[in-house]
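Agenda item 2: adenosine-5'-diphosphate complex prediction
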Amino acid sequence: MGQINVLDISVANLIAAGEVVERPAAAIKELVENSIDAGARNITVEIQKGGIALFRVTDDGCGMSGEDAILSVKRHATSKIKTAKDLNQILTLGFRGEALAAISAVTKFRMLTKKKDDPSGTSLSMEYGSAPKVAEVGCPNGTTIICEGLFATTPARLKFLKSDMSELREVQSSIEKEAVSHPDISFKFIADGSMRFSSNGNGKLSDAIYSVYGREFANSLTPVSSSSGGITVNGFVSAPTFARGNRSMQIFFVNGRPVRSKIMSAALDQAGETYIPVGRYPACVLNITIHSAYVDVNIHPSKLEVKFSDEKSIFSAVYYSVRSAYETRLQRPTLVDNKPSISTQLNNAKITEAFAPVKERGEKISEQLSIDTVIKPVEIKIEIPKEIEKPLSINVTTPKQASNETSEKEVVIDYKPSTSKASNQSKSHDMPTYQGLSVDADDMVYENKNILEEKLEVKTNTINTDAQIPNKIANEIPNYKIAGEVFDSYIIVEYEDKMLLIDKHAAHERINFEKLRVGMTNLTPNTQLLLSGLKLDLMDSEIDMVNQYKNELTDVGFTFEINDKCVTITGMPIDYNFTSGRELFEKMISELLENGTPIEIQKRTVFEKALYQTSCKMSIKAGRHYDDETIKWICDNIFRYDCIKYCPHGRPVAYEIKKRDLDTRFGRIK
Ligand code: ADP
Ligand code: MG
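Presented output:
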């Protein structure tokens, strides 16, 4: 080892820049977050060549005095914290005091800044970490930072940047997140002279999502909202039909800070079980609000990672709020897409003409408008679908309401699974059972006559419709007419000014599933005792799990004894046979071993998976013979329960078509 040197400050800044300013998107994110922290109402980001040639961030925030401007580009200079204690309660997006030092070390850097009450402003320029040149200037209130030639003096780092187009995508994605996480700030993003998006800053998350991600995405969303135990979850998740092949549209914030969060993703995944198709990922925009003392943002210089002091509570909050949204607020998909009619297209053309190229601070903006500019014009009043605008309150249950206004229903969300177990009400309102269901050693056999028996039972119970699926809001069944059936698969139903096209098999699957699931929430476990015990040899870690979750396993219907390294199952949940019950037990243990999520949810997810597989098998076996009464029973259930909108695999149960849409298609109305 040679002699130790204390590094020159410029070298130290370059090293820091490696972490903070990895690429244009990271640098721009830092500048935008500074603008947000400065209380800006309007933020404009402009870039050229993916930000590599130039990026400029302009805000109308608090601005800086001349002295502060000089300090701001020094390393570890911040106005946001003072002492180590402040690190425990960070309320701003920045706090490390290194972004401006790092950015000014690797760009040609110019800053114009002025505080509102100061008579003049300050201009500060630096080139790749040189001493700053400062002058007094006249400039608007707020701060503008312009950076050119990123990494021009460090070719090794320049080499690692991707194409201009990829860098642009990264920058856009990062600003999009900032814009939707701050709906009260108006954002504009201009790339190579074209306005890519702008948000109006009216404070509505739904409007911000619409402006940033467009109409199709906004229309696919279902509101999520809950608050319990000091954790508030707010935002939207996409309908199952809009699930994607990757997680790129899962957007999470914690106290308004865009973050990557494994725990939130995992909760979203689990909440999507039996709604989202396997291998697909729901899109979401979810903000968690939690006291800053319970979240540590000081994990990584990029501040994208956070650490929660109580991960289980975060998991539960996200899981139950999203789950509840899926169970009660999902809208039925519409079959007629919202392609603009000819008249709307003409109007759009007019809008395009009227929408003059944007000129900012006298700079020429390309005359060539991008497609986005035409689709999402800035000044045009955006119509947000009603369901997205609805207030997202919770805590009031309205059990019997008009059937088709799901989004207006307010929902009780209970974070504590133990209390969400069926109330006495659900016990006394037991639904018709699958008594005739005979279970084979390896398979389920569903005899058709049982459908009829069950149907008859349903018919005699129709007055007490709430009782069919306990814990679910039961709607009154509207007057409807079964118009017919096509391809031995799809039922056509007419009601009010709409028609439904129902996939009868998918509908049957969901109904079976919901009925089976009731067993999970009953207070008394549904156990069937075995004639002879089933002995399982388990590993030590597995035995530990069984011991740890003894009560929960008993709750779901298992009874068992534990001796040394072996568990003897003496009773199983009703409807499970020797083979499937054993599989269920073993699967639960291994899943529990795999991840440390809260048991109630884990149990529920594992259970639900097993249940929906079973219900699908049964529906398939029930098969092809759907007589008129069964068809009517399916339709009744679809109207009665909001939860029967997607089959357990995430496929839609029914599409809705409005008469008005058909009339438009046929040219009867414009
Ligand atoms: P940090 O944001 O972590 O404090 P930065 O290096 O990003 O560190 O910024 C240093 C300081 O410069 C900030 O604490 C703030 O006081 C000031 N500053 C930076 N950008 C702005 C801005 N756009 N408006 C007003 N003040 C700013
Ligand atoms: Mg900062």
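Discussion summary: DSSP finds 23 helices and 24 strands in the chain.
Owner for follow-up: CH.
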